[in-house]
């Protein structure tokens, strides 16, 4: 039995270090905008020791590409929604290549051949066999392997309903089933025969077919005889077959050999595997590499920022034309406020447009974090730094167009504040969207939750209903004070109106100061500095990033426990569930020698 512990040496047990193993998930979660070589290279720089030179790391990357048979596609992009990429088999080999970079002694794989054609599946398993032949242990779950793939296995663990049906050398599994009374016909794939014996799903299929034939076919008795002739396993419940196999295995020589082997391994004293997986590089190098990789991914993914930037520019032109040269007349005070309110609301809600990319990035993080490639803090910081240039570009373009066309205050200080205010607000929303992406399972749920959250923020920002008029309970305290949009909008209004005089509606009445309009018309306190408003927005941004960090750490601790409890409950349900096959009321032909399961194979069967 292996135990996952920290670096230690103890008498009487074999310790398998957490950092000496790797796990390849069933789904190939990769950044589709990167090439095969870039994906492996970035992973190498993230995890290999900092003392290695660039040349040494490059040599390791090229050797890994060669070992995995990825030379032909090494410079092709992996592929995403708008890029054609590599095949499924190449993606699977790339996923394996990323994890074997640090030469883990123990490699787990979850159904590595799922969704692959026979040739690709055979190639992948051949790669795994070559890894195992180099002194590594490879453990993989697999469903319905072909005969060629099954022949590559060294050992086989066959489970059904949480019970061990067989555990031992794969080449002896067919012999065990024959000795247990369920021989494999010579023209059948052994793995298909094993699953046919222990998979209870066949019960439901058989029952459905029999019932359908009973209703629609008057010659049901003839059909029953035919089914008994073709496959007598149809007349024996899976639960009964499984019970027989489990009982036979416990008393078999294969079980004794397995227990002896386990006892031999656990009796080795003080053996500790070498700590050679996970990340062995510095925090600052990880930050640099992650930021660079994330920036490249964002720059190549059209849906991450570029489409939004294009929409922002087009909408800025539309806003500028609608509010063109709005002027300083008292009649245009609300027009100025409406322009600022629309820009603040629309610019933030457009962050939902990148949700699909947020979700994909979170999947990559979850996979890499599972194998200890880097920490939560470095990912949080790198994600913010890599997105900042695009947010700045969006805000500079939008503010330049609207300020010029609407004729907001033209000074450099006012323009600088407008950009900074918008950058802070959008960065805050982006952080919130990343939080939501880390908690929801798919894109649709993320859009719904994100849109709902932004809607609440816009509603309580003080534009549609002024701050003094907001209900005191909940909406004003605490929602409006925790609302980044409220502080950003106040700062934007102050930046535009303080120091400006508006024409009076009456000819002999002096001009109205912007401070008075802020207080009487918009319900904003002009005595409070706009820089304080900006500072609060930045504080909320930092708080969201800290909350994002806390959510990721919480998910690491809690989600595995929830999954374990769910798995135990499901397994318990499977063990207690009776077989639901409807036994035939007609006489069985099992005892007729002319209808034996393996009469043509020369094997004995209890179904005779």
From TrEMBL:
Membrane-spanning residues: 305-327, 333-355, 376-402, 443-467, 531-552
Cytoplasm as UniProt keyword: no
Gene Ontology CC: one annotated term: membrane
Bilayer topology annotation: Multi-pass membrane protein
Compartment(s) of residence: Membrane
Chief location: membrane
All copies of domain ABC-2 type transporter transmembrane, residue ranges: 286-496
UniProt-listed PROSITE patterns: ABC_TRANSPORTER_1
GO MF, any single term: ATP binding
SUPFAM superfamilies hit by this protein: P-loop containing nucleoside triphosphate hydrolases (SSF52540)
Residue ranges occupied by any ABC transporter domain in the UniProt entry: 22-114
Keywords from the UniProt entry: Membrane, Transmembrane, Transmembrane helix, Transport
Short name of one Pfam family: ABC2_membrane_7
Residues annotated as domain ABC transporter family G: 143-198
PANTHER family, sorted: ABC TRANSPORTER G FAMILY MEMBER 11, ABC TRANSPORTER G FAMILY MEMBER 13
Family assignment from sequence similarity: Belongs to the ABC transporter superfamily. ABCG family. Eye pigment precursor importer (TC 3.A.1.204) subfamily.
Protein's recorded name: ABC transporter G family member 13 isoform X2
Species lineage: Eukaryota, Viridiplantae, Streptophyta, Embryophyta, Tracheophyta
């Amino acid at each position: 039995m292996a135990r996952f512990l920290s670096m230690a040496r103890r008498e009487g047990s074999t310790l398998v270090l957490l950092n000496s193993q790797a796990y390849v998930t069933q789904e190939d979660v990769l950044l589709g905008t990167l090439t095969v070589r870039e994906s492996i290279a970035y992973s190498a720089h993230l995890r290999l020791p900092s003392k290695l030179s660039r040349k040494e790391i490059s040599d390791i990357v090229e050797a890994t590409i060669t070992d995995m048979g990825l030379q032909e596609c090494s410079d092709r992009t992996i592929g995403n929604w708008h890029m054609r990429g590599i095949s499924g088999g190449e993606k699977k080999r790339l996923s394996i290549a990323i994890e074997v970079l640090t030469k883990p002694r123990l490699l787990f794989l979850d159904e590595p051949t799922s969704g692959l054609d026979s040739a690709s599946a055979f190639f992948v398993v051949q790669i795994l066999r070559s890894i195992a032949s180099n002194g590594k242990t490879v453990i993989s779950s697999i469903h319905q392997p072909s005969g060629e793939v099954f022949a590559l296995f060294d050992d086989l663990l066959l489970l059904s309903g949480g019970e061990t049906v067989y555990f031992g050398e794969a080449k002896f599994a067919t012999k065990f089933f024959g000795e247990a009374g369920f021989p494999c016909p010579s023209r059948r794939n052994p793995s298909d025969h094993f699953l046919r014996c222990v998979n209870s799903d066949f019960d439901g299929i058989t029952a459905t077919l029999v019932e359908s034939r009973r209703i629609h076919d008057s010659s049901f008795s003839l059909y029953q005889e035919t089914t008994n002739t073709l496959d007598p396993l149809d007349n024996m419940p899976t639960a009964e077959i499984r019970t027989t196999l489990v009982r036979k295995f416990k008393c078999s020589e294969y079980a004794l050999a397995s227990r002896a082997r386990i006892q031999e391994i656990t009796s080795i004293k003080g053996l500790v595997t070498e700590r050679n997986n996970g990340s062995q590089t510095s925090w600052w190098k990880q930050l640099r590499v992650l930021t660079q990789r994330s920036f490249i991914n964002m720059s190549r993914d059209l849906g991450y920022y570029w489409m939004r930037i294009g929409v922002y520019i087009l909408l800025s032109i539309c806003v500028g034309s609608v509010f063109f040269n709005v002027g300083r007349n008292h009649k245009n005070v609300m027009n100025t406020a409406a322009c600022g309110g629309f820009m603040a609301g629309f610019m933030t809600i457009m962050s939902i447009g990148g949700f699909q990319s947020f979700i994909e990035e979170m999947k990559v993080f979850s996979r890499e974090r599972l194998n200890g490639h880097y920490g939560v803090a470095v990912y949080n910081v790198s994600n913010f730094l890599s997105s900042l240039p695009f947010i700045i570009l969006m805000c500079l373009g939008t503010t330049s167009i609207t300020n010029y066309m609407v004729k907001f205050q033209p000074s450099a200080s006012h323009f600088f504040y407008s950009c900074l205010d918008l950058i802070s607000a959008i960065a805050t929303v982006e952080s919130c969207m990343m939080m939501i992406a880390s908690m929801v399972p798919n894109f649709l749920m993320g859009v719904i939750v994100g849109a709902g959250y932004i809607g609440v923020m816009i509603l309580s920002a003080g534009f549609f209903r002024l701050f003094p008029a907001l209900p005191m309970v909940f909406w004003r305290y605490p929602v409006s004070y925790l609302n980044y949009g409220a502080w950003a909008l106040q700062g934007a209004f102050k930046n535009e109106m303080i120091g400006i005089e508006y024409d009076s509606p009456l000819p002999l009445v002096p001009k109205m100061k912007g401070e008075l309009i802020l207080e009487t018309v918009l319900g904003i306190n002009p005595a409070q500095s706009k820089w304080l408003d900006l500072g609060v927005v930045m504080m909320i941004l930092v708080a969201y990033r800290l909350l994002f960090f806390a959510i990721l750490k919480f998910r690491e601790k809690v989600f595995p426990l929830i999954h374990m409890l769910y798995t135990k409950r499901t397994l318990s349900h499977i063990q207690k569930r009776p077989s639901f096959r409807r036994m035939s009321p007609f006489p069985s032909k099992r005892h007729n020698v002319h209808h034996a399961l393996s009469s043509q194979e020369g094997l004995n069967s209890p179904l005779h």
